[in-house]
């Protein structure tokens, strides 16, 4: 097809040619064509494929009815590429194979499927450029669209073009998503001149200019409307230009025009079209089997094709998707059900049991247990293939077909859980209403309440969840002690996120309830953690330390199950921080990140990355921490979710990046308003306190630290609230008001003494020194330097030397002060902690020292992505490993490495 054949689309065709030219040059291109039905998106896709000489072309057309079938769209697009699966890493190979129904024994994780699709497209483009087109993408099943949108956001240098055609308006259809955040081109109606040209080409005989003008105006330049509206207009109106304008939207008028055309066909042709509309795969063999069962001959197909509404070749294709819609909805409900039942009968129950169940469900006129049970089995298969959204949709339909009230409740609860896991809280809550209707025993009602509470935690991130979880745990306690104890531990976790915004004293109530609810034997690591935290909440930190240490050891055991680790390692890492146990925190954070990477869990990965980022910051490895904070953003961008910003906030505060710290802090504050995530403002205030102490602006630091700790008296003090006490002590001491810090120091000392680690002892000694008289301060300073020097906490160790050097300088001991301040400055500079380094430099300058400031940055012109890749090459990772880590294809990694080699003047990975 040449550009001239697409009337009035010169600009659009030029853009599509640019897509192909970019891919021919070795780059990847992504484009979303967005426009109203009938505006010409499919025609532009035909132009694109017609111009793609030398390309491998893959095509998928989404059908609204297939949105419930997991990976149906991905199967259309990628099934011809399955011979390349062996080139993918094993985890991605199994995930994509499972998604495409190729007999994988593992349930495909959606994140690994998305990574595998990215790799598969890259591999398919190695021999020749690849063009993938997806028509009517708004109807693609959720699992497929998530995978393709992920790949589209990560394509860079693979010689792949991925082009979607999507309807407006930009509202997500129920149960599905559109590609968002990608380059778009809005396809509008034709200009008046081009619209008139098109209209004259389809109007027979004589025409009236007034009528031409009216049709052009009513169509708004929509090409399909221009072709179909004349068929709806009386010939006398065409001749004389009379008639009233229609109040119906264009889409409705076009569908009505198609319905009229269908209605004028013989009955057998109408039945044939309905069978084709109901059968979404476009498989001619299946359609022929159905029409044979219906007693329709080939004459019916011939008449349907002659009407210009359908074409039968290797696939069954309607002239336009709106034809399918018009045919389907013009039929009566019983006519549609009859065709669905016939298609269920002729669909192979072994080769395609899910589609058979789907047809049977739509063919049922009322409750039908056999069909509902078949849907339930189909949902189980969908879940095994990683299609959680499809699992929810299939179970929801099974609920509608279930007459038995108890079985209906059980299926509704299972469907609600699946909907929650798929990220559809509205559907989950509707299903929970069904599950909670009628008579329920306490156990089932407790399960419903627990599911509702977990939805609240995800949506509100804390404020209401603790109370709801507490209520569910109390109801479940008499029936399932393990599940009830899990709910109580979730209360503690939710309250940590809620922080001062928690609406109840849920932690105390959960701890009290857990203390009288025996743990299952043998105790799980989670039971040890819950019991330890309960003692911490009820009896205080000192009494709880032995039990919490047992919990830490249990989670550090090599036999910990991946499921338990992925679920609870974040909370146990927070517990390790509360015990000032840096070694165990580091070990568990590394395990959490490893588990999240191995499992490909996109939801767990940002939190695992954040905790590992915190460990790197504490170790003074800010470059590594910055890379992980960047990876958190990369994960969020890849999967299209909001990213936790706490890791980046840690790095910004310790580095002294004021603008970045303030901006990230504002985002953390917004989280409290939007999601009830009250811990956000606590973290942002602590970060500002640390930032200002580093910059030597102690009065501002004291204000921020005071706000961070003020409202935490009723909540579990672990991590940031305790670190804020440390900042408050230093800030008030440096502003000449040490008496204001007495209460904060008492709270701090209670926590550090019981823990007894070098980290705890060093921080306590440093804080005590800041508040002590001159004759008592020096031994404390020396104790802090000695204790922190035995740890890997280089930032805290450097801070001890800094405050000691400042004290020595004020005491007139200039040489001793120079030694401590120089050591502190060099440590801070080596870690790129610029705020603290500048504070030390100012003190040295006041003592007559000349300090040369290091820029602290990488002197090369490597981009942040290139710096990440270099670090991973140095760790010994291969290109596929690096691609999996950074959510890039191996070919894009290769491209970045070629740029790195050129910039650094090296020729091999070994030289890096």
From TrEMBL:
Name of the protein in question: AAA family ATPase
Taxon lineage: Bacteria, Bacillati, Actinomycetota, Actinomycetes, Kitasatosporales
Family annotation (PROSITE patterns): HTH_LUXR_1 (PS00622), HTH_LUXR_2 (PS50043)
Q: Membrane-spanning regions, if any?
A: none
**Matching InterPro entries, A to Z?**
AAA_16, P-loop_NTPase, Sig_transdc_resp-reg_C-effctor, TPR-like_helical_dom_sf, Tscrpt_reg_LuxR_C, WH-like_DNA-bd_sf
- Identify the GO cellular component terms for this protein: cytoplasm
Biological process annotations from GO = regulation of DNA-templated transcription
A Pfam family of the record is: GerE
Question: A single GO molecular function, which one?
Answer: ATP binding
Which CDD domains does UniProt cross-reference here? LuxR_C_like (cd06170)
- Keywords, sorted A to Z: ATP-binding, Nucleotide-binding
> Which residue ranges does the record assign to the HTH luxR-type domain?
855-912
């Amino acid at each position: 097809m040449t550009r001239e054949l697409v009337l009035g689309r010169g600009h659009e065709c030029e853009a599509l040619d640019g897509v192909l030219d970019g891919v021919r040059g070795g780059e990847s291109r992504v484009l979303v064509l967005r426009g109203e039905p009938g505006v010409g998106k499919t025609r532009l896709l035909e132009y694109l494929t017609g111009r793609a000489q030398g390309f491998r072309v893959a095509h998928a057309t989404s059908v609204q009815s297939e949105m419930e079938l997991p990976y149906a769209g991905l199967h259309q697009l990628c099934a011809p590429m399955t011979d390349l699966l062996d080139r993918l890493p094993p985890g991605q190979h199994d995930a994509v194979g499972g998604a495409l129904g190729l007999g994988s024994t593992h349930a495909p994780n959606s994140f690994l499927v998305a990574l595998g699709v990215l790799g598969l497209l890259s591999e398919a483009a190695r021999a020749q450029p690849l063009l993938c087109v997806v028509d009517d993408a708004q109807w693609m099943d959720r699992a497929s669209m998530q995978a393709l949108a992920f790949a589209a956001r990560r394509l860079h240098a693979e010689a792949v073009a991925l082009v979607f055609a999507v309807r407006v308006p930009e509202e997500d259809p129920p149960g599905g998503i559109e590609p968002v955040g990608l380059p778009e081109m809005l396809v509008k109606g034709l200009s008046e001149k081009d619209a008139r040209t098109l209209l004259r080409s389809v109007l027979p005989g004589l025409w009236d200019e007034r009528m031409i003008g009216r049709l052009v105006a009513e169509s708004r330049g929509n090409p399909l409307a221009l072709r179909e509206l004349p068929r709806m207009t009386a010939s006398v109106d065409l001749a004389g230009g009379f008639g009233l304008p229609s109040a119906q939207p264009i889409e409705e008028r076009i569908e009505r025009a198609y319905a009229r055309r269908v209605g004028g066909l013989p009955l057998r042709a109408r039945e044939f079209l309905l069978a084709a509309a109901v059968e979404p795969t476009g498989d001619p063999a299946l359609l022929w089997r159905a029409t044979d069962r219906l007693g329709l001959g080939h004459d019916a197909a011939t008449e349907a094709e002659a009407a210009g509404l359908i074409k039968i070749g290797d696939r069954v294709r309607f002239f336009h998707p709106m034809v399918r819609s018009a045919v389907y909805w013009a039929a009566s409900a019983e006519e549609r059900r009859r065709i669905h039942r016939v298609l269920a009968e002729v669909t192979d129950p072994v080769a395609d049991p899910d589609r058979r169940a789907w047809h049977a469900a739509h063919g049922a006129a009322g409750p039908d247990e056999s069909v509902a049970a078949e849907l339930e089995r189909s949902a189980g298969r969908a879940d095994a293939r990683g299609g959680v959204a499809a699992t929810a949709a299939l179970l929801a339909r099974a609920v509608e077909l279930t007459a038995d009230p108890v079985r209906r409740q059980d299926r509704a609860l299972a469907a609600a859980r699946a909907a929650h896991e798929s990220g559809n809280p509205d559907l989950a809550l509707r299903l929970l209403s069904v599950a909670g209707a009628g008579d329920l025993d306490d156990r089932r009602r407790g399960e419903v309440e627990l599911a509702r509470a977990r939805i609240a935690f995800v949506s509100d991130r804390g404020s209401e969840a603790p109370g709801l979880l507490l209520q569910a745990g109390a109801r479940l306690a008499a029936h399932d002690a393990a599940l009830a104890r899990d709910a109580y531990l979730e209360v503690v976790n939710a309250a940590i996120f809620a922080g001062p915004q928690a609406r109840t004293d849920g932690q105390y109530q959960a701890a009290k309830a857990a203390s009288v609810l025996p743990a299952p034997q043998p105790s799980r690591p989670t039971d040890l953690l819950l019991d330890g935290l309960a003692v911490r909440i009820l009896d205080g930190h000192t009494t709880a330390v032995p039990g919490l240490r047992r919990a830490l050891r249990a989670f550090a055991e090599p036999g910990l199950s991946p499921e338990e680790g992925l679920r609870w390692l974040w909370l146990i890492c927070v517990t390790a921080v509360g015990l000032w146990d840096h070694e165990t925190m580091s070990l568990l954070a590394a395990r959490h990140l490893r588990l999240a990477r191995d499992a490909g869990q996109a939801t767990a990965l940002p939190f695992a990355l954040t905790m590992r980022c915190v460990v790197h910051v504490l170790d003074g490895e800010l470059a590594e921490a910055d890379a992980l904070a960047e990876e958190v953003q990369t994960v969020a961008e890849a999967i299209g979710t909001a990213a936790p910003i706490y890791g980046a906030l840690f790095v910004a505060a310790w580095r002294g990046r004021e603008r970045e710290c303030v901006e990230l802090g504002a985002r953390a504050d917004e989280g409290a308003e939007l999601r009830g995530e009250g811990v956000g403002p606590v973290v942002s205030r602590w970060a500002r306190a640390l930032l200002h102490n580093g910059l030597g602006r102690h009065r501002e630091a004291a204000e921020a630290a005071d706000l961070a700790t003020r409202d935490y008296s009723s909540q579990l003090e672990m991590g940031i609230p305790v670190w804020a006490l440390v900042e408050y002590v230093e800030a008030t001491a440096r502003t000449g008001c040490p008496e204001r810090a007495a209460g904060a120091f008492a709270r701090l000392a209670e926590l550090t003494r019981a823990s007894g680690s070098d980290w705890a002892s060093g921080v306590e000694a440093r804080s005590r020194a800041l508040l002590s008289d001159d004759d008592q301060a020096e031994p404390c300073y020396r104790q802090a330097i000695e204790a922190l020097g035995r740890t890997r906490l280089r930032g805290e160790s450097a801070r001890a030397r800094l405050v000691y050097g400042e004290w020595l300088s004020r005491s007139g001991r200039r040489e001793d002060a120079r030694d401590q301040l120089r050591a502190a400055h060099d440590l801070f500079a080596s870690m790129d902690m610029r705020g603290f380094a500048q504070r030390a430099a100012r003190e040295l300058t006041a003592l007559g020292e000349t300090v040369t400031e290091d820029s602290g940055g990488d002197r090369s012109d490597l981009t942040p992505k290139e710096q990440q890749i270099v670090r991973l090459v140095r760790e010994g990772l291969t290109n596929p490993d690096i691609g999996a880590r950074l959510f890039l294809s191996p070919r894009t990694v290769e491209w970045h490495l070629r740029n790195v080699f050129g910039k650094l003047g090296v020729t091999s990975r070994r030289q890096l």
